[in-house]
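Collaboration report, partner site 2.

Our partner group contributed sequences for two proteins of shared interest, and the home lab folded both. The records are reproduced in the order in which they were received, starting with the first partner submission.
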Amino acid sequence: MPPDTSPVFSHNFATEFPELSIPYSPDSGPNPELVLFNEELGKELGIPADLDVLLGQRADIKEHAVAQGYAGHQFGQFVPRLGDGRAVLLGEVAGKDIHLKGSGPTPFARGGDGRATLPSMLREYLIAEALHTLGIPTTRALAVIKTGKTVLRQQSEEGAILVRVAASHLRVGSFQYARLHGLELTKQLADFGMRRHDPDCSDYAQWLSRIMKRQAATVATWMRVGFVHGVMNTDNTTISGESIDFGPCAFTATYDPKAVFSSIDHHGRYAFGQQPHILAWNLARLAETLLPLFDPDEDKALGIAQELMAHYPQIWRDAWLESMKAPLGLSRYPTEEVEGIIDAHHELLLGQPIISSGRKLAEGEGLSREWTKLWQELDPDMAEVKNNNPSVLPANHVIDSALSDVGEAKRLLGALKDPYSPHPEISMEAPKNFHYVTYCGT
């Protein structure tokens, strides 16, 4: 008899936090069919292309599957009970969360049908893997599976489930939810988060500082490639620093701080240029939940939090400068020696096409003659420049055309996994009059 190679799932979150989760058996649909499977990631995790495993139908997985609870500020308004309305945590494998999206309405569904469409899950898969290849911290996509159900949105669509992999699904909103249940549970969750992400850390204030730096580094890389998340609510800001939930996201073709694509972001709260500021706001909400853990004295705790948040502008600037060194071929320089040239490049980049500006750099040409002269005097590493300025991104018009056909999605995925090579078959210039709007349901 061959050895059993089935992956072993642990269920640490479900076991430790019954107050923050609700048992839920995922619905695989009447006729599940594997559409995309991430062979590389599956091999890394030891998870095969087995539908019973991927969909949580194996008895030992199904028994412990849970929908996670969390709260959140949505467009600045606090909602005390959100949670996984159409998602379920199957458990942990190799230290990673295995999570389904679109597997049916959980008790957190708030009236939704709990389903997802095939185009929307293909979109999440493509964007997650594109971000990963670009070196941006992100949740990963393990599989997309058609369910055999019809899902009604603006029209009838094929239903699908995304199998998502994450360092964890702890969010700022997780701590907001725990805090509503009391300080002891908040402390328990913070200790769990430290064990999971920062096992060498035992100081809560230091831990918040680490989270701030992780998240700043992530958002800085978003800004470098024109990524607009679209819905930076506190429940979409992770403790791990990974990017998560790509329904209303988009890529801005030009470096436009006012770029907004979400149909519900009427006032530009989550506009491209607002993302660093919204991150600070979200991190301040996290600090509020952790205040009693900083010090039992309320005034001292508040002072610690205020001091930590006062460091954010410098944390952000350091992260932004660091993210821009490699695209300019300047990684070998101390940051303080090149911040002037980076700042000047940023000023020139405003309003310019992101892709073509980056590819010009790869050809040794900046956005002005004067800047190019100063840059070339620094003898930039041109191999580094070429390997950090993509020629292809999952831009709005590019990804939109690939979602109606799985074959097209696979072809685009191949290009997105090789973003620094030329791809003449993909036009990064949007058609005239192309106006892109994203929806949470997409």
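Second partner submission, folded after the first:
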Amino acid sequence: MTSVAAGFGIAHSIVLRLWRQFQTTGTALRRFSSGRPRGTTPADDRYIVLQARRNRRQTAGEIARHTTQATGRPISRFTVARRLHGGDLFARRPVRCVHLTPTH
């Protein structure tokens, strides 16, 4: 069990608990956990970061729309901002500024 734990990079006690659960119930499904389920999967999170890296001028709202079209599940721009922050990127909100001309 120690080699299995080391192979997956998890604690020995987790492997032991899962093995005991499998022996008693015949399955090792995830246990019920409290809290709100995440709106995106790890694959969705990778897609969001990929979209942001492909087009750095894209806003968080635009990334949210692209992700919703790709996955079929609606997510908000705030969710996109959190996922980008988790990927060491930050929410996009490009500054729109007036370009100066010689008359200024």
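Feedback sent to the partner group on the second submission included the following. The CA atoms of residues 4 and 47 lie 30 Å apart. The chain is about 55% helix and 0% strand.
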